[in-house]
């Protein structure tokens, strides 16, 4: 392989991270030969992709091992690693991002072209690893990339699901789920590490026993033991030489075949055992599924935190440190409560296996863990049925009980007579069937708790985590989410990135937090505005082409692209958007000559397979599309598109083409949102309620550059507590009544009055998310949007100012804040050791 020199240094004694296009060409050919084992004439597109990916990976592994060497030789006090524990990592396709971050796009393009291959076609070959549902998993991916960029030593620990989030197809307007076999063509980015494997216990019982030193200790006699094997994927930082690692665990049988069982004639039992073991990492669970207590998901959670913690302890001890200083080696961030069993597992490892006293183990555990909350929906707070947990993880439940006993003793000391408070704070919900409350475990076992936007943190303190806030106010922090500008601008919108570079010079992608604001100076510049609009137009034309090819709908790139892309959920209110479309449609029907700003409504997003209302909302969107798109009175002025299979790849196509970003969740329900950030970063203007990070986006981009509508969180709350009656709002608003009546009467369902009945009933009788109350304010605001869009110059100015205001929402800023407020980490790699070679 082409490599700098044996010791990884070039002739100047500096580290080398770039390769010339000739070297890359050679490397690709080598991989085609030695890795893919393909003679040139038989090489498929996938072979070329694999060979290219392997060539790029070589460079990343080189940087990674170098990072590791420097880490090991740096002063000990700097030996702190961030362990980001997350049941989901929604990484998106790797190749394009790695090329951007390593500065190799042009040399690889040239190398491939010399080999008769086209980089775009090779990029399109990659099947993205869909190992996440949405915002939470994608946030974990942005944070890994930023940690690599900022050279914070970091490992993302998770599960190597064999099947990620389902692929979505639309059949007759309905969502149909298809299995996501993302590994079918091989995965060139991961390194399997059979030597890094840990055993995890399930089931059985516990007993007291003497350990080898004669101490009395609890022993967990499991019913079953499963092995987790590490698969590592390097994550390149942006032009920094830094590399983070994503370590995902695959479950396997401890012995691949039980020969004893085989010999005893129990061949099938042996096979069954293997199948069961491998089932744990088989499939990602969709969120928003009704019903709790899925046995396999519980196993998944424990499986991956146990492997991860065993791995951390192994590494810590192998640095020659004592177990009591574990929290100096690792800052463990748990991404929502899914990994919160790690708190009890670390206690188990420290007490049962490393023989520490409880108090010492508890100090270490609390110092190590920090918890990020991602939801304000109280029904979404995770809890596990106690009997289920006790049967699957008997020792973990004992430890949770002991944590709870000690914790509640303290609480009783502080609030002696307050039984209700004690019941609310307890890790065990005893109001009916017994449950283990994972958020309570996370709050008690962590030294820091954070929300993901200012409003969210504020509401956490006031509502869902109020009792914990009263108890531990010093633990609470806000860290507003961020997204990486490398994937969400440089990679997905290269022409806009180029235009920004023409103003700001190179290097702004490393210091976006301050650099973007300089665009303000160009916002009124007519030439710049024209170039800005031209880039947007080109992105819209590109998206229109894909929409035509994939969905068969012709859309007008000159129309306003109005985009709502995110999971389908009632609180996100895609149906409010639909009510606006119907309202515009009715205006046209009343007066076909009405002055309507042409719009293309683009929806995308998956609904949880068991969430019927969300699936019905998809059917409503596609049904309205069928009517509106073909009505001759509309004459193409309105088009409605449901773009199937929303994932990172499709998002990178849609986001750069958006004019308007729909962030219309009811105030007080969206924790933060990150799509709002990606869209604004690409020059879309936001129509939004004062929810999640929308509030901060509006502050940063300027109130005059943001379309605000709807109730505030406190107003929404008091409307509901005052006895909200949606029917009054329906009866008092003629346009709204007409729209809802049409849905009910079958106008969009070929006269079928049953189809949307559950949706209409829900809106008229419950309307938990205040769609009807916010309707008029939303329509009025949309009219302002339509008017504003007609003034292209003004629109361009507003769009530029939006991008200029987005510096705060870089994940680099968020990671710096985590480092300062929570992890107390510093970057460890000496940047002078690296020379960025870039593309040649
Ligand atoms: O997390 C989302 C929130 O809804 C967003 O407001 C926020 O911006 C992002 C990132 O902080 N939450 C999720 O995406 N949650 C899940 O995907 C999820 C997954 C499994 C189980 C429960 C929820």
TrEMBL record:
EC number: 2.4.1.1
The entry's keywords: Carbohydrate metabolism, Glycosyltransferase, Pyridoxal phosphate, Transferase
Source taxonomy: Bacteria, Pseudomonadati, Thermodesulfobacteriota, Desulfuromonadia, Geobacterales
Top EC category: transferase
Record protein name field: Alpha-1,4 glucan phosphorylase
Cofactor: pyridoxal 5'-phosphate
Top-rank lineage group of the source organism: Bacteria
Function statement: Phosphorylase is an important allosteric enzyme in carbohydrate metabolism. Enzymes from different sources differ in their regulatory mechanisms and in their natural substrates. However, all known phosphorylases share catalytic and structural properties.
Reaction(s) catalysed by this chain's protein: [(1->4)-alpha-D-glucosyl](n) + phosphate = [(1->4)-alpha-D-glucosyl](n-1) + alpha-D-glucose 1-phosphate
């Amino acid at each position: 392989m082409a490599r700098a020199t044996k010791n990884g240094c070039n002739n100047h004694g500096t580290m080398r991270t770039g390769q010339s296009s000739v070297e890359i060409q050679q490397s690709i050919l080598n991989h085609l030969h030695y890795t893919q084992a393909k003679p040139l004439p038989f090489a498929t597109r996938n072979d070329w992709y694999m060979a290219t990916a392997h060539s790029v990976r070589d460079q990343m592994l080189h940087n990674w091992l170098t990072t590791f060497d420097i880490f090991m030789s740096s002063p000990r006090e700097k030996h702190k690693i961030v362990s980001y524990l997350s049941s989901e990592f929604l990484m998106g396709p790797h190749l394009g991002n790695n090329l951007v971050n390593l500065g190799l796009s042009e040399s690889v393009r040239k190398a491939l072209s010399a080999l008769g291959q086209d980089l775009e076609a090779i990029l399109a070959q990659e099947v993205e690893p869909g190992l996440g549902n949405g915002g939470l998993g994608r946030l974990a991916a942005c944070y890994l990339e930023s940690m690599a960029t900022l050279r914070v030593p970091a490992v993302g620990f998770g599960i190597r699901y064999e099947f990620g989030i389902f692929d979505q197809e639309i059949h007759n307007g309905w969502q149909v789920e298809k299995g996501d076999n993302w590994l079918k063509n091989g995965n060139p980015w991961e390194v399997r590490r059979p030597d890094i494997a840990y055993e995890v216990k399930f089931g059985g019982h516990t007993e007291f026993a003497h350990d080898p030193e004669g101490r009395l200790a609890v022993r967990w006699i499991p019913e079953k033991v499963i092995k987790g094997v590490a698969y590592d994927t390097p994550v390149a930082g942006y032009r920094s030489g830094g590399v983070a690692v994503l370590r995902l665990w695959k479950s396997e049988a401890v012995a691949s075949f039980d020969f004893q069982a085989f010999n005893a004639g129990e061949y099938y039992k042996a096979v069954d055992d293997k199948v069961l073991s491998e089932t744990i990492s088989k499939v990602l669970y969709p969120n928003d599924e009704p019903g709790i207590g899925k046995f396999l998901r519980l196993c998944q959670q424990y499986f991956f935190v146990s492997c991860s913690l065993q791995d951390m302890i192994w590494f810590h001890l192998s640095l020659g440190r004592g177990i009591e200083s574990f929290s100096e080696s690792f800052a463990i961030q748990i991404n929502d409560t899914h990994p919160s069993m790690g708190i009890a597992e670390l206690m188990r490892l420290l007490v049962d296996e490393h023989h520490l006293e409880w108090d010492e183990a508890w100090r270490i555990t609390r110092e190590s863990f920090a918890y990020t909350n991602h939801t304000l929906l109280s029904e979404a707070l995770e809890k596990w049925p106690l009997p289920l947990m006790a049967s699957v993880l008997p020792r973990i439940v004992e430890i949770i009980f002991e944590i709870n006993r000690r914790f509640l003793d303290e609480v009783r000391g502080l609030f002696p007579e307050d039984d209700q408070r004690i019941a609310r704070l307890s890790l065990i919900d005893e109001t009916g069937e017994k449950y283990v409350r994972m958020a309570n475990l996370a709050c008690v076992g962590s030294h820091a708790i954070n929300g993901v936007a200012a409003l969210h943190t504020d509401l956490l303190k006031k509502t869902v985590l109020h009792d914990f806030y009263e108890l531990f106010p010093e633990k609470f922090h806000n860290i507003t989410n961020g997204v990486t500008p490398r994937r969400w601008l440089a990679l997905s919108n290269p022409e806009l990135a180029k235009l920004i570079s023409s103003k700001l010079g190179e290097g702004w992608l490393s210091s976006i937090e301050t650099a973007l604001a300089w665009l303000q100076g160009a916002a009124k510049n007519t030439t710049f505005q024209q170039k800005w609009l031209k880039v947007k137009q080109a992105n819209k034309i590109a998206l229109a082409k894909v929409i035509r090819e994939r969905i068969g709908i012709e859309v007008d790139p000159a129309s306003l692209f109005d985009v709502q892309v995110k999971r389908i959920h009632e609180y996100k209110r895609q149906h409010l958007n639909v009510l606006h479309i119907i309202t515009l449609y009715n205006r046209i029907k009343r007066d076909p000559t009405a002055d309507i700003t042409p719009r293309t409504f683009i929806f995308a997003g998956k609904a949880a397979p068991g969430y019927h209302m969300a699936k019905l909302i998809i059917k409503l969107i596609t049904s309205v599309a069928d009517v509106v798109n073909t009505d001759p009175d509309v004459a193409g002025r309105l088009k409605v598109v449901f773009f199937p299979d929303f994932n990172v790849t499709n998002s990178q196509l849609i986001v750069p083409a958006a004019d308007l970003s729909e962030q219309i969740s009811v105030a007080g329900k969206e924790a933060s949102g990150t799509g709002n950030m990606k869209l604004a970063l690409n020059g879309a203007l936001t129509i939004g309620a004062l929810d999640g990070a929308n509030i901060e986006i509006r502050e940063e981009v300027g109130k005059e550059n943001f379309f605000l509508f709807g109730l505030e969180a406190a107003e929404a709350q008091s409307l509901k507590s005052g006895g909200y009656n949606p029917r009054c709002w329906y009866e008092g608003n003629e346009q709204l009544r007409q729209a809802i009546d049409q849905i009910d009467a079958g106008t969009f369902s070929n006269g079928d009055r049953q189809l949307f009945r559950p949706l209409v009933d829900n809106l008229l009788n419950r309307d938990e998310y205040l769609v009807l109350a916010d309707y008029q304010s939303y329509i009025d605001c949309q009219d302002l949007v339509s008017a504003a869009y007609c003034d292209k110059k003004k629109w361009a100015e507003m769009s530029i100012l939006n991008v200029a205001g987005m510096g705060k929402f870089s994940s680099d800023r968020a990671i710096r804040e985590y480092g300062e407020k929570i992890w107390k980490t510093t970057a460890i790699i000496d940047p002078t050791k690296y020379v960025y070679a870039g593309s040649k």
